[in-house]
Amino acid sequence: MKKYLKKYALIFPLLGIVLLFHNCQSSTPKEVKLHEESNTTTDIRSSKRINAAVIVQKVTFPNMPFAELIRLMNLTKDSSPAALWKAISTLPQAEQMKKDSFDIENPLQRMELMLAPLRKMEIKFDQQQAKSDAAGLTYRLENYVNYSKGSGEAFLANSGNETINVGLNYPEGKLNGLAKVQIRINPKEYMIDKTGKTKVIAGITCQQAIYNKIDAMDKTLPKFVVWKSPRIPKGINLLHPYVFDENEGILEIDAYLNEDENSLLRFTTTAVVEKQFEPKEFEVTKAHAKLDAAKDQNSIEKNVLDVVFH
């Protein structure tokens, strides 16, 4: 079963997803409607850089309402995380390889949702560092990066029993993302189109980039549409469920899990609230034991799954 999970869990995005964060110390500005896309980038860099802020995000399935997803997940005794894990391990080989369509009844795709931060996703940042606070259906995650040093740390706990947890240390130069929960996108696998289109997201003008997978036979994550802004530090990109090598901070990601339009996941920013932070606000909860990202990759993968599917 471990061999199977290792093979398949790597392809599943930790998708980052979130309900609106209503209790910021500063009042949240009124929601800004997204402007129509345009083909001009005349003043894209004219606005001042944002030095420190809270980014509030949410996830939507444009073709499937969130409430319906939760209903279909139905995490009862007969459909518990442990039961789901067992179902995945006994899935027939033909079903294991099914990637052409998005079916919530497929245990593999239910697993994707288990790994996604469906309940909360918030990022606070300044010019040196950033920290995300996320919550999935069964876990809570704190993920911190110091992008000026190239190091970081993370804390992942089961939401029902936080004594079940794992800590992770990213040594300098080893910020490759949290196994199972984040996927680093290899730009060599995609044709990247910087379209020149812009739109406003949470009051910030963003530029569009479209990623299309070069290998047409590879149907996993065939397409992304990202919206980014030079007003936001690129270091926050290290905290997204999908990690892109972009030079501007990303505020929206459309991720296609496969070629089925129902597989579209949209991670978008609903508010950017400028504020200053105390050093303690970037601190990460201490775990019972902390693993090293450079040395303990296999242990990290197993521990992450143990926490999420306990």
SSE order and pairing:
Elements: H1 2-9, E1 53-60, H2 66-73, H3 81-89, H4 93-96, H5 107-115, E2 120-125, E3 130-135, E4 139-146, E5 151-158, E6 161-170, E7 183-184, E8 190-201, E9 204-213, E10 223-229, E11 242-243, E12 249-256, E13 264-274, E14 290-292, H6 297-308
Parallel strand pairs: 6-14, 7-11
Antiparallel strand pairs: 1-2, 1-13, 2-3, 3-4, 4-5, 5-6, 8-9, 9-10, 10-12, 12-13
Organism: Sphingobacterium siyangense
Keywords: Signal
Protein name: Lipoprotein
Describe the structure using short key phrases.
16% helix, alpha+beta, 310 residues, two-stranded parallel ribbon, twelve-stranded mixed sheet, 6 helices
Question: In words, what does this structure look like?
Answer:
This protein has 310 residues and is α+β, with helices and mostly antiparallel strands. It has one domain (2-308). It contains 6 helices and 14 strands. Strands 8-9-10-12-13-1-2-3-4-5-6-14 form a 12-stranded mixed β-sheet, covered by helices on one side. The chain has a two-stranded parallel sheet with strand order 7-11. Helix 3 (81-89) crosses helix 5 (107-115). The longest helix is centred in the C-terminal third of the chain and has 12 residues, at 297-308. Keywords: Signal. This is Lipoprotein. Residues 1-22 form the signal peptide. It comes from Sphingobacterium siyangense.
